[in-house]
């Protein structure tokens, strides 16, 4: 038996927040944008729907060392992230600047990598 997933105005507003931003968002950032569409969205509703959207594989978590998790729409090409030290926003960086041929210890095999850039975004400069 298939599970019926309810589409609500709140969930649609939360989805739209991620689509409009086109960058990783914190739950609080998603809340602010979603509330422009549906005023009654609460932070608890955002967290619940983010968990559902991750389970549905529509969103994926973006782990930032020393920061709270952000989330972005799944299915994008391989990319990395830029974290603004001033405003705390996270942006996507297209492509991959990490050398493919990495010197690993003997017997090690690489299966993936993470690469974060830090600095000041254009809005904060």
Report on the architecture of this protein.
The protein is of the alpha+beta class. The chain folds into 2 domains: 65 residues, Winged helix-like DNA-binding domain superfamily/Winged helix DNA-binding domain (Arc Repressor Mutant, subunit A, Orthogonal Bundle), CATH 1.10.10; 41 residues, no CATH class. It has a 3-stranded mixed β-sheet, with no helix packed on it. A two-stranded antiparallel ribbon has the order 1-2. The radius of gyration is 17 Å and the shape is globular. It starts with 8 loop residues before the first helix and ends in a 6-residue tail after the last strand. The model has no long low-confidence stretch (mean pLDDT 88). Keywords: DNA-binding, Iron, Metal-binding, Repressor, Transcription, Transcription regulation, Zinc. Its cofactor is Mn(2+); Fe(2+); Zn(2+). It holds the Pfam family FUR. One of its GO terms (molecular function) is zinc ion binding. One of its GO terms (biological process) is negative regulation of DNA-templated transcription.
